[in-house]
């Protein structure tokens, strides 16, 4: 799925709100939590994958509320009425009248108010790890939230604020603990913070939370409502969801094991997203699976780790840039598509197996002239298209074939070899290989 273009809507009080839209189907408006950036969200696979999943079933509209992301900043702290203007402006610009609404965290409070105040505009409502009004926290009828919750929240937000844009670790540890060991994601989080708001702007955003009290809105909601919550959420206790379940007439409650407040980065993200899709569609999830027949090429630079250590980070980065340019140019010359970089290699697809073989032979020669030795693996089969990526048995097999090849060699499966019988290319049997994840040995062939 292509990254959607950023558009802007103007509110009735003169504020520009950034929004994006993608997908096909019933209309769904996503209301973000405290921070968002509608453009940068598509750069992280963990943020992108749920957006693409939703786009398979809905026409989705997402926006940055005033004060954050790519939207205008505010002079005075916005009221809940101002927040409603943001939603109305985006819906008007996108030509939406009656929609499904999904709100996360602070966005859950906005969603509660919007559904209660504009019942004619909301078809179905989803609240995920949502904020609960202080009115109900002090008069609880279910699991206790704890007298010190406010102090704990303030302390954590102070930690995030103090390191804003310098390291994403405090935010990841608290909001997305399943990704805490992922160094690349932690670095990306810091960059996301820098691109979303300055430290001062984020402080003002935190201060504006006081105006987002949903008060009596839950009891006035008429739309069918689904409440989802991760049981181990470290930001908002699951008791918030249980109280909302009692307050909203006819609401459904779905609790999920996990610790992430922003659940879409977690390994279990699709279980929750599919439950939401099922509710909004009022039926089971039957995704449209796109498939295609293609030839897959995996490449890998031999001894890349040792070489990187020997020449240093700066020189290695230059080497990788040169490698990536060569891959892009050669694959393009043979009518192929570079699916993605694998760090020290690449995955590409081709419409014909002969083009793939010719391309990798050319690439091997070109990279050798720059002092780089590669190994490569090819297989032809059917793959599942997942946005800009591909997946399935054939992809996994091609990756294992590349790993089986020795330095400088190009291995192919018997499937690809058989498709090219009678052609100009010559193949030599390399033997039967036990490939990781596959029960039976595969006979592989070396390209001569």
What's the helical proportion of residues? 25-40%
Q: Number of helix segments?
A: 16
Strand residue content = 15-25%
Intertermini distance: 38 Å
Structural class by SSE content:
alpha/beta
Q: Count of DSSP E strands?
A: 16
Report strand order across the widest sheet. 1-2-4-3-5-6-7-8
Rg computed from alpha carbons, rounded to a whole number of angstroms: 26 Å
Taking the sheet with the most strands, its summary is:
8 strands, mixed
Uncertain ranges: 139-147
Integer average pLDDT: 92
Shape: elongated
Nutshell version of this structure?
With 448 residues, the protein is α/β, with parallel strands linked by helices. It is built from 16 helices and 16 strands. It is elongated.
């Amino acid at each position: 799925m292509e990254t959607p273009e950023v558009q802007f809507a103007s509110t009735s009080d003169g504020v520009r709100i950034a929004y994006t839209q993608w997908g096909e189907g019933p209309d769904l408006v996503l209301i973000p939590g405290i921070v968002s950036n509608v453009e940068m969200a598509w750069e992280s696979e963990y943020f992108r994958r749920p957006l693409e999943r939703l786009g398979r079933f809905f026409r989705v509209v997402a926006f940055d509320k005033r004060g954050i992301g790519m939207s205008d900043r505010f002079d005075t702290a916005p009221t809940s009425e101002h927040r409603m203007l943001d939603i109305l402006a985006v819906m008007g610009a996108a030509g939406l009248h009656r929609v499904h609404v999904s709100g996360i965290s602070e966005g859950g409070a906005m969603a509660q108010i919007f559904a209660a105040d504009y019942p004619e505009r909301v078809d179905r409502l989803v609240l995920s790890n949502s904020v609960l009004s202080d009115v109900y926290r002090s008069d609880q009828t279910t699991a206790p939230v704890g007298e010190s919750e406010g102090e704990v929240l303030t302390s954590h937000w102070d930690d995030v604020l103090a390191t804003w844009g310098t390291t994403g670790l405090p935010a990841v540890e608290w909001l997305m603990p399943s990704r805490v060991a992922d160094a690349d994601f932690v670095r990306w989080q810091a960059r996301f913070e820098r691109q979303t708001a300055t430290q001062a702007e984020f402080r003002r955003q935190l201060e504006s939370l006081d105006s987002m009290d949903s008060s009596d809105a839950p009891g006035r909601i008429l739309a069918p409502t689904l409440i989802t919550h991760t049981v181990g959420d470290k930001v908002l206790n699951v008791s918030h969801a249980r109280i909302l379940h009692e307050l909203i007439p006819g609401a459904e409650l779905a609790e999920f094991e996990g610790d992430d407040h922003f659940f879409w980065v977690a390994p279990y993200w699709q279980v929750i997203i599919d439950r939401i899709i099922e509710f909004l569609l009022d039926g089971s999830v039957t995704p449209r699976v796109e498939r295609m027949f293609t030839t897959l090429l995996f490449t890998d630079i031999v001894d890349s780790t040792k070489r990187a250590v020997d020449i240093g980070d700066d020189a290695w980065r230059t080497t990788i840039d040169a490698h990536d340019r060569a891959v892009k140019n050669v694959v393009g010359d043979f009518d192929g598509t570079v699916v993605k970089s694998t760090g020290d290699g690449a995955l590409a697809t081709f419409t014909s197996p002969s083009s793939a073989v010719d391309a990798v032979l050319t690439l091997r020669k070109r990279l050798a002239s720059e002092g780089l030795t590669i190994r490569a693996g090819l297989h032809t089969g059917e793959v599942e298209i997942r946005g800009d990526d591909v997946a399935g048995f054939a992809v996994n097999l091609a990756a294992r074939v590349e790993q089986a090849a020795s330095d400088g060699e190009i291995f192919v499966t018997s499937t690809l070899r058989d498709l090219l019988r009678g052609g100009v290319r010559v193949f030599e049997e390399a033997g039967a290989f036990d490939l990781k994840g596959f029960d039976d040995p595969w006979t592989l062939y070396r390209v001569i």
